[in-house]
Amino acid sequence: MAIKIIMDTDPGIDDAAALTMALNDPALDLKLITTVAGNVTVDKTTKNAQKLVRFFNKDVPVAAGAEQPLIKEFEDAARIHGESGMPGYDFPEDLKAPLNKTAVEALHDEIMASDEKITLVPTGSYTNIALLFSEYPEVKNHIDRIVAMGGTLGKGNMTSAAEFNVFTDPDAAKIVYQSGVPIVMVGLDITMKALLTPDSLSKLEHMNETGKMLHDIIINDGDNNENGIAMHDVNTIFYLLHPEAITTKDMWIDVITDGPAIGETVGDIRGAYHDGKTNASVCVDIDDEAFNKWFLEEVEKIKQG
Ligand code: BDR
Ligand code: CA
Predict the structure, then answer these.
(1) Which atom of ligand 1 approaches the CA of 157 most closely?
(2) Average pLDDT, whole number, for the chain?
(3) Which secondary structure element, helix H or strand E, spans residue 122, and what is its range?
(4) Ligand 1 pocket member 169 (CB < 6 A)
(5) Could you tell me the distance, in angstroms and rounded to a whole number, from the CA of residue 74 to the centre of ligand 1?
């Protein structure tokens, strides 16, 4: 049976690729998309999510979420993802309106109405989820797990210590890691290894309209270079569908919320600080060839575009 998921996202080029897989893979049942400020402002991330839903002619609701982090000042990543967040392709503009309720309300309603536990897949900062847990703690028992892009055991991509999603709202990340809900940390430790190769990228261009759309936006990613391009957020979907291709290690993750290491995810790898207790399953290795192969196969199967 398909895994019921909700994507909480900030498209964003790699978010767009993750949504492409989530909207189309029959092994996933995407119930709702909620948006958050991150790569660009939330009005733009919401519009980008609506554009993808329209592009694939899907009937998945979109609800707009937090305009800014809980405490920290908002800083976007338009230098990497472009001013629109999804540059390089002309999407249809006749978009279905977002829901007439906030992301937090939509998350609450969808999670509580579901007959099975939902898997949350955040690929932006975790502001909406932190607000949800603070306002409606009862939802926690109705969530199977959180498979979250963000964090790193090694070096950061925003500061030396911090990955972008956790850096954007470290206070929200701390609430989520302390929530007691099982969490899989899909961080830079694997996403910087599983680069989409230049060869894979060029194959996308002539595959079908979805491949062309992804190719045209991915080549605009400010991090694209001759070694390939990290498709960070797509690793969450790959993990859900192919956990056998990813190695995880259980440990305790603490999130630093101030000072020079703000946004750092400190993994208690030796179990020394938390007496062997764990709050996360951390992705530590990935089969990058399997990732590339799967990425191309997924796109090839998509009819609409
Ligand atoms: C994360 O930061 C964002 O820019 C990407 O969309 C991804 O979610 C990678 O650090
Ligand atoms: Ca993202």
Answers:
(1) 10
(2) 97
(3) strand 118-122
(4) no
(5) 15
Q: Parallel, antiparallel, or unpaired: how do β-strands 118-122 and 3-9 relate?
A: parallel
More confident residue, 79 or 238: 238
How far apart are the C-alpha atoms of 42 and 71, rounded to whole Å? 16
The helix/strand/coil state of 250 is: strand
Question: Are residues 183 and 280 in contact, defined by beta-carbon separation less than 8 angstroms?
Answer: yes
Q: Which two tokens stand for residue 61?
A: 């609701």
Residue 280 sits at φ, ψ, to 5 deg, of -155, 155
| Residues with C-beta atoms within 5 A of ion ligand 2 | 10, 12, 15, 123-124, 233
- 41-70 pLDDT, tens digit per residue, is 999 999 999 999 999 999 999 999 999 999
Residues 6 or more apart in contact with residue 181 via CB below 8 angstroms: 133, 140, 143, 145, 146
Dihedral sign for Cα 248, 252, 255, 261, please.
negative
Sign of CA dihedral 225, 155, 191, 132: negative
Residues 9, 127, 167: CA angle, nearest 5 degrees: 85
Active site residues: 232
Q: Provide the pairing of β-strand 195-196 with 253-255.
A: unpaired
The label of the residue with tokens 């703000």 reads: 262
Which ligand 1 atom lies nearest to the CA of residue 80? 4
- pLDDT tens digits for range 136-184: 999 999 999 999 999 999 999 999 999 999 999 999 999 999 999 999 9
pLDDT at 203: 97
User: Which tokens is 149 given?
Assistant: 């892009």
Degrees, nearest 5: CA angle 51-52-58: 110
Helix (H, G, I), strand (E, B) or coil at 276: coil
* CB 8 less than 6 A from any atom of ligand 1: no
Look at ligand 1, atom 2, and give the residue with the nearest C-alpha: 164
